[in-house]
Amino acid sequence: MMKHFPASARHSVDLGWLRSAMSFSFGEYFDPDNSSFGVMRVLNDDTIAPGRGFGAHPHSEMEIVTIPLTGRLKHEDNLGNIEVTSAGEVQRMSAGTGIIHAEYNDSDTEEGTFLQLWFMPKERGLAPSYEMASYDEAKLQNALLPVVTPDGAGDTASINQDMTIYLGRLQPGRRIFFNQKTGRRAFVMVLEGNMNVNGIAMGPKDSIRAEFEPDFVLSAEESAFVMLIDLP
Q1: Is 137 helix (H, G, I), strand (E, B) or coil?
Q2: CA gap 35, 22 in Å, rounded
Q3: What pTM was estimated for this model as a whole?
């Protein structure tokens, strides 16, 4: 079973310094029929003005992943971590029993765009932690490259959940095949370009939520950038 969500279906917020398109209920936006997809709780597509960002605020019992699309995001937390993440990198924060952090656009002149993803943890009550990982963008070509995994294998960031985040870039006329294990969910979002997923035409920031779909065929007649998340 697959359900297509066009980019225009997302809830949008414009605060001047922040423009955000929300795939799920978040903050003042609440839709009881759109509060989560399995353990996936939040996907905010944020554009942050130069030098602006989110001041210090707390989180607990949530796995939070940030994927920069353009620009640089500066992270600071009460564990002493100070990092700047840009395209080609991902950051993972396990809020656990509690963490306080702040995030800002690290540029004084250019906007930055970042995907903020939240997932419910597999295990509660863990100590909070932070990790940044980089990936080889050449390995995205016509393939799905894991960038966040349960065990942090290879160059991936680890996460306290039975899930994997993949990124991939399709060249014109190429295909990517993905086999979904029995009883799993998948979330697919086109980040750039236009593509076809199992016969569904998708544009930029369109998404699909799929349950019990054994195989995926991703194809594109032009260059495209895609994210696929394998979920329990």
Answers
A1: helix
A2: 11
A3: 0.97
